[in-house]
Specification:
- It contains 2 helices and no strands.
- The longest helix is centred in the middle third of the chain and has 35 residues.
- The chain is mainly α and about 70 residues long.
- It is elongated.
């Protein structure tokens, strides 16, 4: 069927999409904040994360150093 007012329908659908996107990202943000508090409060986890990031940077640096032009 053809919509009588396609612009109005498109604006309605856009509004629903924006609302759903906002809600998903709000939940994601709350989850990330909870995980941040959980991770930061544990020194062993922080040490593990620092070492993992350092190893990843070393690996990427080695890959870059060994890459041919």
């Amino acid at each position: 069927t053809t919509e009588a007012q396609p612009l109005t329908r498109m604006l309605e659908l856009s509004g629903v999409f924006m609302l759903m996107t906002f809600l998903v990202f709000a939940v994601y943000g709350l989850f990330a904040a909870a995980m941040r508090d959980h991770v930061i409060s544990r020194p062993r986890v922080m040490t593990w994360m620092r070492r993992s990031f350092a190893a990843a940077f070393v690996a990427l640096g080695a890959k870059l150093a060994l890459a041919e032009r």
